[in-house]
Amino acid sequence: MTGLSGSRDERSGGPRDGPVSLSSALVDAVDLLTHLWSDAAQSANLRLSPHQLRALRILEDEPGLNLTALAVGMRIGLPTASRLCDRLEAAGLLERVLHPHKRREVRLLLTRQGHRLLDEVAVRRARALAIVLGAMEPAEREALGQGLQGFLAAQAAQDRGARGRHGPGP
């Protein structure tokens, strides 16, 4: 696939397997994966925006967050987070519950329907991705798996280094 600035070879100015050339190919793959991901999510029984799905995923990973923590986690303003939660609550995917020990704090929890929707989206995404992966040669899948492991390890090392320089993250 060719990006906005020309072919991969023209953009890299170097070997085809160098970091710049590979990053261009990865950008193309991420664009396609994003489209595949979005299509799978939109075919679920209840259509949600990527922003809404992200909020549900955060609350699935960290049940009981308060509105401020959700806003910080999503890097959005408190009013935006509040409106987002209003819509998710109206759709029956989220409930607000008083904190058992802090009278003024409200916890955000997914409902059963919220959990079911996330499960449905995950299954649809996995199926869509499996179709594409199934079209690849076994050696290509193996190389992709090894490359992804290396990518994740390199990113984790960078994250650890950044935390070491700047202190613990949020």
Q: Total number of helical segments?
A: 7
Percent of residues in helices comes to 55-70%
Distance between the termini: 37 Å
CATH class division of the largest domain: Mainly Alpha
Order of helices and strands: HHHHHEEHH
Bulk shape:
globular
CATH topology of the largest domain: Arc Repressor Mutant, subunit A
Largest sheet: 2 strands, antiparallel
Beta percentage is: 5-15%
Mean pLDDT: 85
User: Care to count the β-strands?
Assistant: 2
CATH superfamily of the largest domain: Winged helix-like DNA-binding domain superfamily/Winged helix DNA-binding domain
Adjacency order of strands in the biggest sheet: 1-2
Uncertain residue ranges: 1-12
Rounded radius of gyration (Å): 20 Å
Write up what this structure looks like:
The protein has about 170 residues and is mainly α. The protein has two domains: about 40 residues; about 80 residues, Arc Repressor Mutant, subunit A, CATH 1.10.10. Helix content is about 65%, strand content about 5%. The protein has a two-stranded antiparallel ribbon. Strand 1 and strand 2 form a beta hairpin. Helix 2 packs across helix 6 and helix 4 crosses helix 5. The radius of gyration is 20 Å and the shape is globular. It starts with 7 loop residues before the first helix and ends with a helix. The N terminus is likely disordered.
